[in-house]
Structures are given as C-alpha cells and as structure tokens.
Specification:
- This protein is mainly alpha-helical and 101 residues long.
- The protein has helices at residues 3-16, 22-31, 41-48, 54-63, 88-98; strands at 39-40, 74-75.
- Strands 1-2 form a two-stranded parallel sheet.
- α1 packs across α3 (41-48) and α2 (22-31) packs across α4.
- The model has no long low-confidence stretch (mean pLDDT 81).
- It binds a DNA duplex (13 and 13 nucleotides) through residues 21-23, 40-42, 45, 50, 52-63, 71, 74-78, 81-85, 88, 91.
Length: 101
DNA sequence: GAGCTGACATGTT
DNA sequence: CAACATGCCAGCT
C-alpha cells in the first residue's frame, strides 16, 4: 500500500532481477505477494522498475497463465478488482476470502 | 472546492 | 498496426 512495501518487493526482485524481460520481472513480483495482501498494477510496475508500465503489467498478468502467480492479488488503485483471466467474479471472491482490502 | 469524463502514455501479443 | 485486466492529467459540472 506504500513504497515501504514496494521496498520489500524491490529488494526481493532486485536479487532475482538479473537481466530478465519485463514479463519475467512482473512475474516474480506478483509471485512474492503474501496471502491476504493485494498490490496495485502501478505498485507492481514501480517494483519492476517501470513506474509507467502499469499498462504492460496488467497485460502481462492477463497473458500469463501460471498458477504459481496469484494475479488475483493484483488490483486497481481504485480498489476495483479489474478483470481476470478466469473471471472477474472469482477474483473478487478470492480476495474477499483472504480478507484483502 | 470536489467529483466525473475524456485524452494520453508504456510494453507485449 | 491496433488492442488491453491501468494510471495520471486537464477540463467541465
């Protein structure tokens, strides 16, 4: 919810960010999001090093079909869940179940 | 002064 | 070349 949280992500990703492609970076960032916590597309974009690539982040998450990546924990800055590969309804359900705000 | 709508910017498929 | 699971800025109500 703040840059302090991004610091944790950035550090974690920074260790694994060895000349990787954009999708790979986003992939790693979303993967380290703890349960019950949600991240906005913008924050993820910042964590990967491209604060203005929020558009790409959403696109990549949607294009990514990896079950190891909780793309449902990535929501909009407005608080809306946005869309989901498997269905927006399921995403909201899962977020609510985890107690994420 | 606050809330909403429309236009523009980034990266990948 | 154009679209997309967004975000920010400017203008209007």
């Amino acid at each position: 919810q703040s840059f302090l949280d991004l610091r944790w992500i950035a550090y974690h990703v920074g260790m694994a960010a060895s000349s990787r492609t954009f999708p790979e970076r986003v992939h790693d960032v979303v993967r380290v999001i703890p349960p019950g916590k949600v991240m906005t597309y913008k924050e993820v974009a910042i964590a990967v090093g491209s604060p203005s690539a929020y558009r790409a982040v959403g696109n990549i998450l949607g294009a990514n079909h990896d079950p190891d990546i909780p793309c449902h924990r990535v929501i909009r800055s407005d608080g809306a869940a946005g869309g989901y590969n498997r269905g927006r309804k399921e995403k909201l359900q899962r977020l609510h179940d985890e107690g994420a705000v």
